[in-house]
Write a structure and sequence with these properties.
Layout (H helix, E strand, L loop, with lengths): L9 E3 L1 H4 L3 E5 L10 H15 L4 E6 L4 H12 L3 E7 L8 H8 L2 E6 L1 H5 L7 H4 L5 E4 L6 H7 L13 E6 L3 H9 L5 E6 L7 H6 L10 E3 L13 H14 L8 H13 L9 E5 L18
Parallel strand pairs: 2-10, 3-4, 3-6, 4-5, 7-8, 7-10, 8-9
Antiparallel strand pairs: 1-2
The protein binds pyridoxal-5'-phosphate (PLP).
Length: 297
């Protein structure tokens, strides 16, 4: 895919925070196909090209970074794209939906029941024959996404870190990271969903047997659940930005970074550790917050 990694870099936050923390700025890849989404999509795009498909279809929620990233990547790569969106069509479209449409994505809204059953609306087939459609699983979960995510740590020398921390949605990215690191390094995932009981197993399912217990999930930092937030989280985002000049998003990266700093307060991490935060991007999601909430834009 023609997105460039040359803007990505590792930044030290040591002097800003007084803690041994670096951040891998994957958010700088592309404003929309940012962070982990580029890595998760690239193997799907390769497969779609190899199979001579012309349309890329995926299922997602109305605020999904995966959906909008799929729209942007499909357009860049010359594919048509279709988004099957969970729930009735809202009266006012989210900024995420609007952006996906601007990238040419055709959107179909389905009831929550049909969505759970992963039913593709019949109208899709009025315009496209099944054989031209390449389907990317909901949220980009799966083996192809994981294979792409193993590359996240290949472009940079990350061998000196003791802990690598990332936000977790489907866990596909965490599975890729887990497969890529040395046995001595600990991979810590911060789920952004509440009651994500099946997550542990879903991540294990993507991993080779010997890697299945090489990651750890910390479940206490969902701040109420997916796309939920508290005043405390918003204040953290602003103070983190003030100190480090690193913007975060309220759905994913703010929760993961909050967990990392809290880990030092609670003594889970010590100053002898060396932490790498993965900035998985997702900044477009902040556009659904009321104007003026954040000191960065
Ligand atoms: C999608 C997303 C994640 C979660 O990725 P998974 O591979 O689904 O776990 C994390 N951070 C950001 C910013 C995302 O957009």
């Amino acid at each position: 895919m023609s997105f460039s990694l040359q803007n990505c870099r590792v930044e030290s936050l040591q002097s800003a925070l007084g803690l041994p923390i670096d951040v891998l700025r994957l958010d700088l890849i592309h404003p929309v196909v940012s962070g982990n989404k580029w890595f998760k999509l690239k193997e799907h795009i390769k497969a779609a090209i190899a199979e001579n498909k012309t349309v890329i279809l995926t299922l997602a929620g109305a605020y999904s970074n995966h959906m909008v990233a799929t729209a942007a990547a499909s357009k860049t790569e010359g594919f048509k794209s279709i988004g099957v969106i969970r729930g009735e069509e809202p009266e006012r479209w989210s900024p995420t939906l609007q952006t996906a449409k601007e990238f040419g994505m055709q959107l179909f809204f389905v009831s929550r029941t049909d969505y759970r059953l992963k039913k593709i609306p019949v109208e899709v087939y009025d315009q496209h024959v099944p054989s031209e459609i390449f389907e990317i699983p909901e949220g980009g979960y799966g083996l192809l996404g994981k294979i792409g995510a193993t590359d996240i740590l290949q472009f940079f020398d990350t061998s000196s870190y003791t802990h690598i921390i990332s936000a977790v949605g489907t866990g596909t990215t965490l599975a890729g990271l887990t497969e890529a690191v040395k046995p001595s390094q600990k991979i810590i995932g911060v789920p952004v969903l509440k009651n994500a009981f099946s997550l542990q197993k879903e991540i294990e399912d993507l991993l080779q047997a010997e890697k299945q217990n090489c990651f750890q999930l910390i479940n206490d930092y969902h701040f109420g659940g997916y796309a939920k937030y508290t005043q405390e989280l918003l204040s953290f985002m602003n103070s983190f930005y003030k100190a480090t000049k690193v913007p975060t998003d309220f759905v994913y990266t703010a929760k993961a970074f909050y967990a990392a700093l809290d880990g030092f307060k609670k003594g889970i991490f010590t100053k002898g550790d060396k932490i790498l935060l993965i900035h998985t991007g997702g900044l477009q999601g902040n556009s659904s917050l009321p104007k003026g909430t954040l000191i960065f834009g």
